[in-house]
Amino acid sequence: MHRPLVITEDHALLDDLVRIAAAAGTQLDVAHAPAHARPFWNLAPLIAVGADQADAVAATSPPTRDQVLLVTRAAEDPDTWRKCVAVGAQAVVALPEDERHLVERFADAMEPDPRSGSVICVIGGRGGAGASVLSACLALRASGDHLRTLLVDADPLGGGIDALLGQEEASGARWGDLVAREGRINAGALHAALPSFGDLAVLSFHRGEVAAIPAQAMRSVLEAGQRGFDLMVVDLPRHLDPAAIEALTRAKTTLVVATADVRGILSTVQVLGETRKHTSDIRAVLRPGIVDEDTAASSLGIPSAGALPDQPRLTATLNRGELPKLGPRTVLGALCTTLLRDLLSP
Hints:
Largest sheet: 8 strands, mixed
CATH topology of the largest domain: Rossmann fold
Oligomer: single chain
């Protein structure tokens, strides 16, 4: 993959640009004169032209292209915009005030195939309703259909969704490795760091003592996920913390798994009271109980997305560390296929 190109003889400016590129997780190709830049002009994903070399670059009449920036320390200089136009740049970046913006531009340049991933949140209407199982099965079904999928465990006290998948020993980063990160996370680096199984990547917790996820960490992960994945499935805690709220605000749809009995409905109504404050499209996935499906959905006041029948063998399968069969002819596989079709349709 080609790297961003910098054209400058200003060593102090170059030092800053190298540092900014490192913060974006990339390195630079450097040309100290326009002639040295010519072989890279059409190949570099982004070109940063130092104000000191702008006139020299313009004199070579380089081909018109996008993703060209003029970088200067003197934005107030009245000659800056003339240089911007002359070199064919689309924007002026003034340092140090635009440093964070330049970090994002460098990072964007190294993600040449941006995706537009959807976020689906799953939350239990009561404990043990099966939200984590549904989250895992949705992610498995999506990845089986070759959607690049990120399964995010947002429940610090849930026991670890990697363990649910029988992958608690898999090598790779967990939340504890990411919570200290601020700002942008490179989507490719995130995918490479996490435990992955085919098209499925999993972000869970380390074993032992766990801490709450900062909202900023969840924001950075989901922003990277939306650039690098087709789908993110977030398994939420029932008691919403700042990170869960961050995920809800980004959700295309939130599924509430509710048991169709009196306590299950009453508990789910309580959960919905908080969930509705942060997201709009909420749908029920109903577990069987003494209340029929239509009455349960009516009591909840949200549309039903489907029914999740009891699966007597599912718990035993998961406890053996085996993955459930999710073929289109299985009940669970058919449900997940239907949910994904409905939730991901334009």
